Amino acid sequence: MTRSIPRARSLRRAQTSAEAKLWRVLRNRALNGWKFRRQHPIDRYIVDFACIEAKFIVEVDGATHSTDAELVRDAMRTEILESLGFALLRIPNADIHDHRDGVRETILAALERRDTV
Question: Signal peptide: which range, if any (predicted)?
Fold first, then answer.
């Protein structure tokens, strides 16, 4: 875990444009008071955005997440994170760029479902 902290810091500095846009929606409890962390270490992974209170993760997926090898790796990652009690939502870059309000509402709805379960 100690090795992942410098890596997480590096990822925060080198965020993608989609991650930057989504971070503006999530930061400072802007999403109905939910606190999110970006590039947060969980187990052996660094997740894009995490709401620890709700055990909820948002992953921003670019074009590299469409290859067979990446799909298998993402499925294994999702399985491990879910085994730790986290729910995971994957959002394509294009949706963040083209439908940011819809993405916001999708995340909020998923959080509210987690909160009532």
Answer: none
At 114 the pLDDT is 80
Q: Residue ranges per domain, the chain?
A: 4-116
pLDDT < 50 stretches in the chain: none
pTM listed for this prediction: 0.85
Q: Is 89 in contact with 103 (CB distance < 8 Å)?
A: no
CB-count exposure of residue 33 (10 Å: 0-12, 13-18, 19+) = exposed
Cα distance between residue 92 and residue 62, in whole Å? 6
pLDDT of residue 96: 95
Residue 32 φ/ψ, nearest 5 degrees: 50, 35
